[in-house]
Specification:
About 70% of the residues lie in helices and about 0% in strands. The protein is mainly alpha-helical and about 210 residues long. It has one domain. The protein starts with a helix and ends with a helix.
């Protein structure tokens, strides 16, 4: 089953690179802004086993969709940011941006013609691995940009939205996991899959950008 093996290899690439770099990026940006929380918690490392969540890892491996163990940051320690909310927004944005950068780098073998130097069978299998890794990274970036607590998009929105709206989103944080589960699993059963409606256009846009030049 070469196809399944290639798909699994692409997903493993995301598990051992995409997710760790995503969570590291959150912590590194918070560190740059003055918050030592990620460093104290040992999150300024690319060791995947520090960043992986068991259930999220299995989800990526078997479905192509999942998550890592969230990197904790303290926006009130980000003394180099203009405000705590701005600091949180910048730190939150770093994660999805890291996935987009990784996807861009994974397109280089296609752009540079490196696959043409391989045996056609090997080239086809490597292309499948790379494309799966690109697709999962793009999916992670798009999904995390949704303005739904506790996703990165909600924290970015808090940083740029009017204060009243930001305050409302912050008040929703204690219920974030329930909101996310409702949006992911209950609403589609009711005929309203807003995740797909919001994520798919952003995914298409990112793919157009990645393969446009």
């Amino acid at each position: 089953m070469p196809f399944r093996a290639d798909v699994m290899l692409g997903r493993l690439l995301v598990i051992f690179l995409g997710i760790p770099i995503h969570e590291w990026a959150h912590g590194w940006m918070a560190h740059v802004l003055g918050d030592e929380t990620p460093k104290l918690q040992g999150r300024l490392t690319l060791n995947p086993f520090i960043h992986l969540d068991p259930i999220g890892t299995l989800m990526i491996l078997f479905t192509g969709f999942g998550w890592g163990r969230p990197a904790r940051v303290n926006p009130y320690r980000m003394k180099h940011a203009s405000s705590p909310r701005a600091g949180m927004a910048i730190s939150a944005l770093a994660g999805p941006v890291s996935n987009i950068v990784q996807a861009l780098l994974l397109t280089l073998p296609f752009r540079l013609g490196l696959l043409d130097t391989l045996d056609p069978t090997q080239a086809a299998r490597l292309a499948e691995v790379l494309f799966v890794a690109i697709a999962v990274n793009v999916g992670l970036a798009a999904f995390n940009m949704l303005p739904i607590p506790p996703l990165d998009g909600s924290r970015i929105l808090v940083g740029v939205a009017p204060r009243q709206m930001g305050d409302f989103i912050v008040r929703m944080e204690p219920y974030a996991i329930y909101i996310l589960l409702f949006v992911l699993f209950i609403m589609p059963q009711l005929g309203l899959d807003i995740v797909t409606l919001m994520v798919m256009p952003f995914q298409r846009f990112l793919f157009q950008i990645l393969f446009a030049w």
